[in-house]
Design goal:
Distance between the termini: 56 Å
Strand content: 5-15%
Structural class: alpha+beta
Number of helices: 8
Helix content: 40-55%
Strand order of the largest sheet: 2-3-1-4
CATH topology: Aminopeptidase
CATH class: Alpha Beta
Number of strands: 4
Number of domains: 1
Shape: globular
């Protein structure tokens, strides 16, 4: 098939978190809302062409080369512990991967120096994939070490898993791009333990498989785009509108976190992932710190943090 759609990938360092209200002690939680069962879905006929292409994109994402690409990107971004509005190394690296694969890169989006958009294709539909790439303060946990053990004491680190989202998007987008060309979770330091290990590497690959097949469905079945828009307009926002919290004159707070990064970045660069010397970040950590995966503290010296 010809290029019948546009793929956009965007990355920013600003996350919006929605939190549910927790009852105070002695307070009864509000009763759960009554949810009416959804009507049974109408039977759909599977388009043999779509099914065949999904099998092909699944095989591509599952290939050793694509698995390795996702692993290297996940580990590389993990090693760049940059806070929001300060993700310069990540922007250069991830945008570079996409540019090398034929995407047009737009930087400094919305006045944010580290925000970028990568575009490829023409026509419709236009499908955007987005993910955060920032990390959190004081969480430079050594991956695979099951007790608090920091790479650079007090520095930022990926205690939230944001190092995996954009690599997942990129793997999925590259697989779908090839088809188009050819055929026309609470955050703290402990969450960083698995985020540059086989747990994250496999998660990125399996997530990219599901995402790539979903992208194909939207590219090849225009009725899905119409149904999604109809649901948004006539169900999700029919009786409730969401005014933006950002006013027209507001400017991005790009000064945030600069002082922290200026304090730690020089020391952190010593531990940036070098994929030319090591296959994984775990191998590099073993060379630099001597620990093997997984590492647990001996029971005799166990202590809590």
């Amino acid at each position: 098939m010809a290029r019948t759609g546009i793929l956009w990938l965007a990355a920013t360092g600003c996350a919006v978190t929605l939190a549910a209200a927790v009852p105070q002690a002695g307070q009864r939680p509000a009763p759960a809302p009554v949810v009416k069962p959804a009507p049974p879905a109408a039977a759909t006929t599977v388009d043999p062409r779509v099914a065949k292409l999904k099998d092909q994109v699944l095989a591509d994402v599952s290939s050793p080369a694509m698995f390795d690409l996702g692993q290297v990107m996940t580990d590389q971004v993990f090693s760049y512990g940059e806070l929001g509005f300060q993700e310069f190394e990540r922007q250069k690296y991830l945008a570079g991967v996409l540019e090398d694969n034929g995407f047009a890169i737009e930087t400094a989006v919305a006045g944010i120096p580290t925000a970028w958009v990568a575009k490829w294709g023409s026509g419709t539909p236009v499908i955007a994939l987005g993910s955060d790439v920032d990390c959190i303060p004081q969480a430079p946990q050594k991956p695979g070490v099951a007790f608090r053990d920091q790479i650079v004491e007090g520095a930022p680190g990926h205690g939230e898993g944001h190092n995996s989202g954009t690599p997942l998007n990129i793997v999925a987008a590259l697989a779908v791009k090839r088809i188009m060309e050819r055929d026309g979770p609470g955050h703290n330091w402990a969450h960083a333990i698995p985020m540059a290990t086989p747990i994250a590497h496999k998660g990125v690959n399996y997530g990219a498989r599901a995402q790539a097949m979903t992208l194909l469905e939207f590219m090849l079945r225009p009725e899905l785009v119409s149904q999604a828009k109809d649901y948004y307009v006539n169900v999700q926002t029919k009786n409730k509108k969401y005014p933006p919290l950002i006013r027209p004159g507001d400017q991005p707070a790009i000064y945030l976190n600069k002082g922290i990064m200026d304090r730690y970045r020089a020391d952190m660069t010593n531990y940036y992932f070098d994929s030319t010397k090591y296959k994984t970040y775990l191998e590099q950590m073993k060379a630099q710190f001597g620990h093997s995966y997984p590492t647990v503290r001996p029971v005799a010296t166990s202590r809590q943090h």
